[in-house]
Amino acid sequence: MQIACSAAELIRRAWERGIAVPGFNIPYLPMMEPVVRALRDTDSFGLIMVARLEWTKFQAGGPEAVAEEYRRVSDPRHTRLHLDHVPVIDEDGRRVDYVRIISAALELGYDSVMVDGSRLPLEENIAATRRVAEMAGSFGAAVEAELGAVLGHEAGPPPPYEELFASRRGFTDPAEARRFVAETGVDWLSVAIGNVHGAISAARRGTQKIRARLDLEHLRAIREATGLPLVLHGGTGIPSELVRRSFAAGIAKVNVATAIRQPYEALVESSPQAACEAVYSTIVELVRNELCVEGSARLLAERR
Ligand code: 13P
Questions:
Q1: Environment class of 95 (CB within 10 Å of its CB; exposed 0-12, middle 13-18, buried 19+)
Q2: Nearest-10 Cα torsion for 239, 84, 222, 154
Q3: Residue with CA at minimum distance from ligand 1 atom 5
């Protein structure tokens, strides 16, 4: 049995059923096959994702290389292809030609794309996101955007986490989110509710990620304001019970990168095969015992 519907419809179904679809980042192409195999073996559904920084700072090759590997190993019952973070201003403060990158990915057949205007003032984030939503519409692709500051990708030491969480600094503002959704036509919104990204700078990418927390009350307020499937970035290292509770409060997609990248990097030089098996077993454990979404492929294939 195949799931014949769009990425937008699948995420909407997850949202309505109170579960979430994990998205797995692919900074090294050989990681993709064990990700797909783990999803298949747990009969679960997930997104295969690549972010711009994974071809500029890691070895994903580029959107085309990822799409080619995806065509080779993907399984339509278990996967869709997502273009993660294409920033308008990147983690090093540089302007990015996001329109060119995203339109090329749409031509390549990506099922969904993310434009990240979160480093822009609100008006400019709205304008960039609306532009991408218009582009994606004619391809039937879903669009994700971000409002608020999910920190972690920037170089240099991160701000002290407890201070950040206590002050709610950078958290997505529900009233702004309401306006953002109404004016952009976006399908999914990435929110800042205490989550942070794993570090990717060369100096810190091997370090253990901090244990982040989530403000679920704040999340519920954003859900009330937007009525859209919400996305949790920085999925590594948050206590799994909190992540699962976030599904009932509006999260329908959870992004995971560091949790599979670090075991891969630790082993790849001595044994590429062991590195891939580490990716596989990490995902099986995550899907089965942490996110508790084993069997989601069957659940999402059913129309209610
Ligand atoms: P982690 O590296 O914390 O898993 O975050 C991944 C992510 O949000 C990619 O967009």
A1: exposed
A2: 70
A3: 234
What average pLDDT does this structure show over 242-256? 98
CB 125 within 8 A of CB 102: no
**84 phi and psi, to 5 degrees?**
-85, 175
Euclidean distance between the first and final Cα of the chain, in Å? 17
SS3 38: helix
Q: Which two tokens stand for residue 303?
A: 């129309």
84 flagged as catalytic: yes
Q: Among 233, 253, 283, 286, which is best to mutate for testing ligand 1, by the most ligand atoms less than 8 A from CB?
A: 233
Tell me the per-residue pLDDT of 46-105, one tens digit each, with 9 for 90 and over.
Answer: 999 999 999 999 999 999 999 999 999 999 999 999 999 999 999 999 999 999 999 999
Question: Ligand 1 centroid vs 304 CA: distance in angstroms?
Answer: 31
Q: Which of 255, 260, 265, 279 is the pocket-test mutation for ligand 1 (most atoms within 8 Å of CB)?
A: 255
Residues in the chain: 304
Tens digit of each residue's pLDDT (9 = 90 or more) over 158-215: 889 999 999 999 999 999 999 999 999 999 999 999 999 998 888 889 999 999 999 9
| Residue 207 neighbours by CB distance under 10 Å | 12
Rounded distance between C-alpha atoms, residue 261 and residue 189, angstroms: 24
Which of 187, 209, 207, 220 lies closest to 265, judged by CA?
A: 207
Nearest Cα neighbor of 209 from 165, 257, 172, 251 is 257
Tell me if 152 sits within 8 A of 199, measured CB to CB: yes
The atom number, within ligand 1, closest to the CA of 261 reads 2
Residue 297 tokens read as 């492929």
> What's the pLDDT tens digit per position in 130-140?
999 999 999 99
Separation of CA 51 and ligand 1 centre (Å): 10
Residues 6 or more apart in contact with residue 240 via CB below 8 angstroms: 289, 290, 291
